[in-house]
């Protein structure tokens, strides 16, 4: 198969494939997206595609990769087009998405990225850069000693980080008298908009001090004039395999180098604060609210928390995918108990229907068509667990309840890290703390010593009154993991 998906071939695709109904040549860029990975292409870009089809043609997307050129290399020959394959146990539907107009690779051409960000037509900047790319220290503040932050402060016109690109482009827009864009964080951070706002103000303050310009005061400008609405996103997007590529290309009759797989369910809840304007997203199911917090907490603690539990218990039990792990009766029972422990930490007066939500989650986790790999979810546990698991555990402990199941997830992560190179492949999943975790492994520490050291490294429950209680609970579970694996740990909770 030599022909590629492109503007020239898209109209000749089979009638069963949905294709853009709008003239892409008439679409203008209005959004710059940082972190143009599979999730963005299955979620935000798909919503924008629907807006473009309804005539809102000034909201095209300029996609930016902050690290590698893989996505650009795959999609540029396809004019930015790609297939979104929506799959469930009953079948698959194909949609060609046309909302990404161009793709940039920041390390190759930071000037082009800054030009896109400072373009007056850019009114929204969205981000899906993963939790670790926000470069937070253990206490949650900006990691000012991180080499990339140090570089960006010394080289403001050639940034590497999201912080550096946002700060420099906002400074340039301010100097040109151009209205600031709205910054819309779509990553799984608690109060993600407010968190990014705080981190960027911290970065800008360091930049202001370094530049020592009398009228710079970029930090104050960002603090007072730039909108950072929080949002909550939800859609399961497993990694695309070579088999997926072959299957989709066969159905299209042309090659698609990087289609995206996803489930039918999708959700996007956004705080409605867009001074420079926004697409009419609510027409396509986006929920615009005054406070995204309760929705965010429900998703982080029930979906993401359960996902982490399934990933680590699944890996340790030999299950390669979520549906297989969730079909394990012991893991299934554990997830129900985990939800029962986490639900009381959610606000009771926010109108959340947790029974319906967890019923939907059970159905989604059982989707055999997705083949969502447990190793993919297992990545970056030290960055994900604080908001998914540790926050709930602290609240349960404060309330006088014993967070047995929540703390077991932390122990499962530690045990899965220890299993790499033994019962799991060496690099089966990765974590920003891998070097430090590997060093711990050479010291042959007891379970209690290991957990205390990990809490220190990851900043779990830092300065919290219940920290020692949580460490002791996690350590008890880790002893069982080391002695008899998941079966012994779950049996200790009466799960068989």
TrEMBL record:
InterPro entries: 6-PGluconate_DH-like_C_sf, 6PGD_dom2, Mannitol_DH, Mannitol_DH/Oxidoreductase, Mannitol_DH_C, Mannitol_DH_CS, Mannitol_DH_N, NAD(P)-bd_dom_sf. Keywords: NAD, Oxidoreductase. Residues 30-283 form the Mannitol dehydrogenase N-terminal domain. Residues 291-478 form the Mannitol dehydrogenase C-terminal domain. GO terms for molecular function: oxidoreductase activity, acting on the CH-OH group of donors, NAD or NADP as acceptor. It holds the Pfam family Mannitol_dh. This is Putative mannonate dehydrogenase. One of its GO terms (biological process) is mannitol metabolic process.
């Amino acid at each position: 198969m030599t022909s590629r998906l492109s503007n020239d071939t898209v109209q000749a695709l089979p009638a069963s494939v949905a294709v853009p109904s709008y003239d892409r040549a008439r679409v203008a860029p209005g959004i710059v997206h940082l972190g143009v990975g599979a999730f963005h292409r299955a979620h935000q870009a798909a919503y924008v595609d629907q807006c473009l089809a309804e005539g809102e043609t000034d909201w095209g997307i300029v996609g930016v990769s902050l690290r590698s050129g893989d996505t650009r290399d795959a999609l540029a020959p396809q004019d930015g087009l790609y297939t979104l394959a929506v799959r469930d146990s009953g079948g698959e539907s194909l949609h060609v998405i046309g909302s990404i107009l161009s793709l940039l690779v920041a390390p190759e051409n930071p000037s082009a990225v800054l030009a896109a960000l400072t373009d007056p037509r850019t009114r929204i900047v969205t981000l899906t850069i993963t939790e670790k790319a926000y470069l937070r220290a253990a206490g949650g503040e900006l990691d000012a000693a991180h080499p990339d932050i140090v570089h960006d402060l010394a080289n403001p016109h050639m940034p590497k980080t999201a912080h550096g690109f946002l700060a420099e482009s906002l400074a340039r827009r301010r100097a040109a008298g151009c209205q600031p864009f709205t910054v819309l964080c779509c990553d799984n951070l608690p109060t993600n908009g407010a968190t990014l706002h705080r981190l960027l103000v911290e970065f800008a303050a360091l930049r202001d001090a370094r530049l020592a310009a009398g009228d710079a005061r970029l930090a104050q400008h960002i603090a007072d004039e730039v909108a950072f609405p929080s949002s909550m996103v939800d859609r399961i997007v497993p990694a695309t395999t070579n088999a997926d590529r072959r299957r989709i290309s066969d159905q299209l009759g042309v090659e698609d180098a990087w289609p995206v797989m996803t489930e039918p369910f999708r959700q996007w809840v956004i705080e409605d604060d867009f001074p420079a304007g926004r697409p009419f997203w609510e027409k396509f199911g986006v929920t615009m609210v005054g406070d995204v917090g309760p929705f965010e907490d429900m998703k982080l603690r029930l979906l993401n928390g359960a996902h982490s539990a399934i990933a680590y218990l699944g890996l340790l039990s030999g299950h390669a995918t979520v549906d297989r792990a969730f079909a394990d009766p012991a893991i299934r029972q554990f997830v129900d108990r985990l939800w029962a422990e986490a639900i009381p930490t959610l606000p009771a007066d926010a109108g959340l229907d947790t029974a319906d939500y967890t019923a939907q989650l059970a159905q989604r986790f059982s989707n055999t068509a997705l083949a969502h790999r447990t190793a993919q979810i297992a990545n970056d546990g030290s960055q994900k667990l604080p908001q998914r698991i540790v926050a709930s555990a602290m609240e349960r402990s404060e309330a006088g309840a014993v967070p047995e199941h929540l703390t077991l997830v932390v122990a499962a992560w530690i045990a899965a890290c220890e299993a790499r190179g033994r019962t799991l492949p060496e690099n089966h999943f990765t974590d920003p703390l891998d070097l430090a975790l590997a060093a711990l492994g050479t010291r042959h520490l007891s379970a209690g010593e290991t957990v205390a050291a990990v809490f220190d490294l990851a900043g779990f429950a830092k300065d919290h009154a219940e920290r020692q209680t949580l460490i002791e609970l996690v350590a008890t579970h880790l002893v069982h993991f080391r002695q008899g694996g998941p079966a012994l740990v779950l049996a200790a909770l009466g799960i068989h």
